[in-house]
Specification:
- The chain has 2 domains: about 90 residues, Immunoglobulin-like (Sandwich), CATH 2.60.40.2550; about 325 residues, 6 Propeller (Neuraminidase), CATH 2.120.10.30.
- It contains 1 helix and 37 strands.
- About 40% of the residues are buried.
- The radius of gyration is 23 Å and the shape is globular.
- It is mainly β.
- It holds the Pfam family FlgD_ig.
Length: about 425
């Protein structure tokens, strides 16, 4: 009996050791000459199915490239780095840090608003979009009220729009989506245009696009919009606007008024009502409502046209051992390091995927029905955005019926989470 007890004890110790064993990442060398043509190769030992993120940063902690970000069951594998950044450019000589993170989780930021939440006091009717500017100020479009609200990073109303923290919308139809640029200008889609507002006075200063008339295909005149919904910006003064009802989206020079800024119009694909950009040439759009918002598609801006790179509408979760389809994707939030958070409304779910340059990899999924934000519970999530520093995820939940078959309302709130990991390690390497 004693021998059996000892054997059980030893087995349990072995089990605990395996479960708690950590991911180990080892470089084949610690320094390389940039003129040698050599590369780094990292060997990863992984004892359990887990999400693993391996990314490179320079001496100033600036993101350089993602080498690996996915949930994997592989126990031993190798990852190369060819000394190039995410744009395919050779990095300069210097010291670099490789960060290895596992156990992605979202932790409620209780210092924000009222214990991590804004809206539980009934301030919102039906919030639809959330955006963050380069200073970390947060903007919420309450579609039901026709109001754009502005908050500071801590959730306190930012009373700097003509002494208020809001802009009241035009007559119906209200804005369908919003964006905020590097200068603080606020953009809102309405009718057949994108209206542009001064971020200090709250006054409309011009509009982008216009009614296409009979030229829906931009065959004679560029710049027409057909009930634009989602809008996004990149760093090259471009504005993207999707028109799901007409099955296209378009690019504009946002410095120009009316139809003068029209650049190109997409053909094919199913661009929908939500999306995000990488700030450069990539656009990530959820698929349209007539596809049941099934997954997302990556598009590449080719300056005078746009092309589809690849998409994702299902994934395998190695932890849960399930094969799942993506449905009712409403929120798309780029994390500044080629990871993307997706918000599913029904069933309730927050999904993290990563863009590996050739396709999408599944990282992790969270969330369940309910009203406890600390437990990642939602009734009807609608949109999300990641802060410019990549540290926080904001999730919007609206107050409308959950679906056509479920008349229960959502909670009409905004929730702020810190993007966290249970384990983080660093390796130092250098290029000379």
């Amino acid at each position: 009996m004693l021998r059996k007890s000892m054997l059980f004890f030893v087995c349990m110790l072995f089990y605990v050791f395996i479960v708690n064993a950590q991911v180990v990442c080892t470089p084949d060398k610690t320094s390389i000459s940039s003129k040698s043509g050599d590369i780094f190769v990292f060997t990863v030992n992984n004892p359990n199915p887990v999400d693993i993120s391996i990314k490179v940063y320079d001496a100033n902690n600036k993101y350089i490239r993602t080498l690996h970000e996915k949930c994997t069951t592989e126990t031993l594998f190798k990852i190369p780095w060819n000394l190039k950044d995410t744009d395919g450019k050779q990095v300069p000589a210097g010291k670099y840090t490789v960060k290895i993170r596992t156990g992605l989780n979202l932790v409620l930021d209780t210092s924000f608003g009222n214990n991590g939440v804004i809206g539980e006091n009934g301030i919102f009717i039906s919030p639809k979009n959330v955006r963050v500017d380069k200073k970390g100020n947060v903007y919420v479009l309450d579609y039901g009220a026709g109001i754009i609200y502005k908050f500071n990073q801590d959730g306190i109303p930012a009373d700097d729009i003509a002494g208020k923290n809001k802009i009241t919308g035009p007559a119906s139809p209200y804005w369908a989506n919003i964006a905020v640029d590097e200068d603080g200008k606020i953009y809102g889609t309405s009718g057949h245009s994108v209206l542009v507002y001064d971020g200090k006075s709250g006054q409309q200063i011009y509009h982008i696009g216009g009614f296409f008339g009979r030229d829906v295909g931009w065959e004679q005149t560029k710049g027409g919009l057909g009930w634009p919904n989602w809008i996004g910006l990149n760093s090259d003064y471009r504005l993207y606007a999707s028109c799901p009802g007409y099955s296209y989206f378009a690019a504009f020079d946002r410095r120009k008024q009316g139809m003068e800024g029209g650049l190109w119009r997409s053909k094919g694909g199913t661009p929908g009502e939500s999306g995000d950009t990488d700030g450069k040439k990539a656009i990530y759009l959820a698929n349209a409502y007539y596809t049941n918002r099934a997954g997302i598609t990556k598009w590449l801006d080719k300056d005078t046209s746009v092309e589809i790179a690849y998409g994702i509408n299902s994934f395998t979760d190695p932890i849960k051992k399930t094969n799942e389809k993506m449905t009712d994707v409403w929120g798309v939030a780029f994390d500044r390091e080629y990871g993307i958070f997706l918000i599913e409304r029904t069933p309730v779910k927050v999904i993290k995927i990563s863009d590996n340059g050739f396709g999408f990899d599944f990282v992790k999924q969270f969330g369940s029905p309910g009203n406890d934000a600390a437990k990642l519970e939602f009734m009807a999530p609608k949109d999300a955005v990641v802060s410019p520093d990549g540290k926080y995820l904001y999730v919007i939940e609206d107050g409308e019926p959950i679906s056509s078959t479920n008349s229960s309302p959502g909670l009409a709130r905004m929730v702020k989470y810190k993007i966290n990991y249970t384990e983080e390690k660093e390796l130092s390497i250098s290029i000379y």
